[in-house]
Amino acid sequence: MIETAVDGGVTRVMLSRPTRRNAFTEAGLRALRSAVTGAETPVVLLTGAGDAFSAGADLAVVAGLDREGAREFARLGQSVATAIEEAEAVVVAGIDGPARGGGVELALACDVRVATPRATFAETGVSLGLFGAWGGTARLPRVVGEGEAMDLALSGRTVDADEALRMGLVSRVVDEPAAVAAEIAANDPAALPVLKRRMRDDADQAVQHAREADAFADLVEQNASDLSW
């Protein structure tokens, strides 16, 4: 279900199961984790094939799970989202079409989220008596704030690209997400993972400041001969 292609400094990782709107089985989740963590470029662009980004978990799979299987499926999805978040590469979610449930959750784990005008977003699990369990209950409030997160999760409503931009769920609405990935990849490849780690650091402020200063000093030492306006 995963297809990869390298273009310069960007590895494009495509969710390619369009007949199921790129919904995930266990094998698909593992393949996505391997593709992202195994990328050797400074930037990864995550996209979906066909007319959707991802419908999230394949409900045909979920319906067949017992209690322990459901717990393990949730833990697998969480581990994939964490792997995306902690990947060495900067991961850009290019959302062109519907993102639902786990598709939203995987996008939330990415470092940058951009949408095309065709993108829509919804946490539809509540309508089925479920909820997103791939880390979304922690990441969604962090990204859009508690009020917006509660509204999205409890209502199950669908928001379009413009509303997603307003609430901070995405940072840009663009015609071609690949252009954003290329823009990021055009920067210094050594600085990108350092900046990502610093922005992701959730230690207390004093520790963050010390780590930030050390990381800055490392980069200055590495690049001093190239620094000029």
Automatic annotation (TrEMBL):
It comes from the Archaea. GO terms for molecular function: catalytic activity. InterPro entries: ClpP/crotonase-like_dom_sf, Enoyl-CoA_hyd/isom_CS, Enoyl-CoA_hydra/iso. PANTHER family: ENOYL-COA HYDRATASE, MITOCHONDRIAL, ENOYL-COA HYDRATASE-RELATED. Belongs to the enoyl-CoA hydratase/isomerase family. This is Enoyl-CoA hydratase/isomerase family protein. It comes from Haloarchaeobius litoreus.
